[in-house]
């Protein structure tokens, strides 16, 4: 599964300078991650992330990146063409 828009970077003190805009710092928030592979699109909503307060770029920690990819891979393996998952509602 390709990992567009997610960055797996160490977070210092739960905040960091944005590597994209270089003007903002991140804060805890939730984002929607969209992943596509072949004919399958997986949208995962309410994903905990660090979000740049200036440009909106988001960064996932290693654990969350792994979880997002696992869920998307599961959808692909089921042959799903389009799936929406809400992280807040999945146990």
Overview of the molecule:
This protein is an alpha+beta fold. It has a single domain (26-89), classed as Roll (Ubiquitin-like (UB roll)). Helices cover 18% and strands 35% of the residues. The chain has one helix and four strands, in the order E-E-E-H-E. It has one helix at residues 62-77, and strands spanning 26-37, 40-52, 58-59, 82-86. Strands 1, 2, 3 and 4 form a four-stranded mixed sheet that branches. It is elongated, with a radius of gyration of 14 Å. It starts with 25 loop residues before the first strand and ends in a 5-residue tail after the last strand.
Order of secondary-structure elements: EEEHE
Rounded mean pLDDT is 86
Q: Which CATH-level-2 architecture?
A: Roll
Q: How many structural domains in the coordinates?
A: 1
Q: What is the CATH topology?
A: Ubiquitin-like (UB roll)
Main features:
single chain; 91 residues; alpha+beta; Ubiquitin-like (UB roll); four-stranded mixed sheet; 1 helix; 35% strand; disordered N terminus
Summary, kept brief:
The protein is an alpha+beta fold. The protein is 18% helix and 35% strand.
Summarize the topology.
Blueprint: E1 26-37, E2 40-52, E3 58-59, H1 62-77, E4 82-86
Parallel strand pairs: 2-4
Antiparallel strand pairs: 1-2, 2-3
């Amino acid at each position: 599964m390709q990992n567009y828009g997610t960055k797996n970077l160490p977070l210092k003190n739960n905040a960091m300078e944005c590597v994209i805009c270089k003007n903002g710092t991140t804060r805890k928030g939730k984002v929607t991650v969209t992943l596509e592979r072949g004919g399958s699109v997986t949208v995962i909503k309410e994903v905990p992330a660090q979000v740049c307060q200036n440009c909106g770029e988001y960064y996932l920690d290693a654990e969350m990146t792994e979880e997002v990819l696992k869920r998307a891979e599961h959808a692909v393996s089921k042959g799903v063409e389009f799936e929406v998952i809400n992280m807040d509602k999945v146990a």
